[in-house]
Structure formats: C-alpha cells, structure tokens
Amino acid sequence: MNRKIVSYISAFVVSGYVVYLDYLFIQNSVWKISSLLFPSVNRYPIHAFVRYLFYLTGAFVILIYSVYFIFYLYFKGNERVKPNPRFFPKVSIVIPAYNEAMNIERLIESIQYQDYPFECYEIIIVDDGSEDGTGEIAERYDVRVIKHEKTLGKAKSLEDGIKIARGDVVITMDADSYFVDGSSLRNIVENLFSRPFVGISTGVIRIEEIKGSLLEKFQIIEYLHSFEVGRRVQSYLDWLLVVPGAFSAFKGYFIKALPSIPKDTLAEDFELAMVVSRAGLTSSFESNAGVYTEPALSWGDLYRQRIRWYYGGLQVLAKYPEQKIR
User: Fold this and answer.
1) Tens of pLDDT, residues 146-173
2) What are the residues whose beta carbons fall under 8 Å from the beta carbon of 218, sequence distance 6 or more?
3) What is the pTM of this model?
4) Rounded distance, CA 197 to CA 247, Å?
C-alpha cells in the first residue's frame, strides 16, 4: 500500500483514539464533580448522559463538515483550466528575511523559474538584521536588497519593502517558502484581476516534508483542510478570514495606500483581511497557485506558533469589535 495512504490512515487512527480518550476524560470528570456535589447520584445516568451528549455533538460536527466537504467538491468540480492572461502587470515580490541563508537561494530561483516575463516582475529582499549573510547571498542574484542594521520585525520589513515596490501587484512571501510549480505566479496574478473589487488573492500553502515525522503528517492534513477545502469555500463566499503572509497578492493601489502595515498585533495577515473588508473589497483564492513552506519540527515549536496565531487573532478581534465578516 502507498506509504502516504498508510500515514494518513495512521494519523486518522491516532486522532480518533485521542478523541476517544477525550470522551473518557470528560465522562469521568463529570462523574467525579457530580458525585462530590450530589453524593447520592447514580453513576450510570451520569455516564449515559455524557455519552449521548458526546454522540450528539459529534454527529453535529460531522454533519457540518460533510456539508462543507460537499461544497468543496461542487466548487472544485466547476473549476476550469484558465487561458493564459492577455496582459502581464508589473509585479513586486516583497520577502522579509531574517537569518534565511539556507533558504533564500531556493526561493529566488523558484521565482526566476516562473513562466512570467522576467521584465515584468521585481524581487525585493528585506534583510531584517540577519547575522548569517542572507543579504549578501541575495545580492548575487541581482535582486533589490534592503538591509536593516538591527532586527525590526516582519511587519516593519514588509512596510519598507512595499514602500519601494513599483509594481501594480505586490506579492508577499516568506523566505522559507518556494513555489510549487512554474505557473503559480501567473495564476495568482490572473486571479487577482479575474473579478471586480478583488483586493487580495492568495494561493495554496503546502507543508514541505523534511523528516517525515508524525507531527509533519498532522500539519499536512491540517493545511489540506485549511487551504484545499476551507479557503476554496470561503473564496466562493467572497471573503477570506485570513490572508497568509507566506503567499498573498495585493492590488498595488490598495496596499500602497495604507499608512502602515499593522504592527500592534501578532497577526498582521488576519488584520489585513479585516482592512480589506472594511475598504469594501473582496478577497479571493487561487487553487492553481501554491507554495511549499517549512513545518514546525517539534511539538514545542508548534505550540508556540499556535499560541502566537490564536493570541494574535484575539488581538485583531478586540481591535475590530464592530467588524462584520461578509
């Protein structure tokens, strides 16, 4: 049997077992609390109540995801191969980088491999105080390099790169990512101009397998759920909850009109999606444009990453309490 299929089945079995352990934990916890508050209560009705409540909520979640997946299949089945665009707007690709000497060459070469006219795009590397020669390596490829003497953060790096961008389209990418194929740049630019009032377009983010660990398998499944299913459905509803900084394209007039890139939250990608919605623009997803990005390699790294994401999301929601998602 295919090794990938075996890994997915294994991940499903493990996740199912974790859900079962969660059920047992909830059942026993409710029983202990109930026995302390009501010593005369019988054990069986408590366990039965928790069991059926767990089944009902589980059935509800399965129903919701089934409907979600049917929408995904419907939208995917109606997608068609798009013809080559009739024009190639000027594109600026802004890449903040901090100590990315191991990755920056791979990214630049994947951009130069794209089937987009070479004279129609520029690459802007913002070296955010790197100590491993990231900027010097990038300069070998004849790209524009901005150097910070000290580390100022990703938001400030994006802002400085966007300020000097000359393109009608501004694309942001992470330095540890690279394009999936040679047509991703063309496809995401075309998607950005496919409908009126689209301000942001984003593509598929895929996990690059490095060690082949179970942790990486979990992240691969999570990203498939988030991008292949979730953002495809969200796009047909004309809004994306988050536009990932690892790979997003902006209309130049919109992103350059912003006074600054949000710096007071940990989730500038989430906040930019909010700003787009407030400006009356829509966001779109392009399934034929994608990049690979590096996964979290340890449970500790994954934990810190998710705490940053979720805390940043709460900061944005607190900042825009009146915002209504389309």
Assistant:
1) 999 888 888 888 888 998 999 999 999 9
2) 11, 15
3) 0.72
4) 20
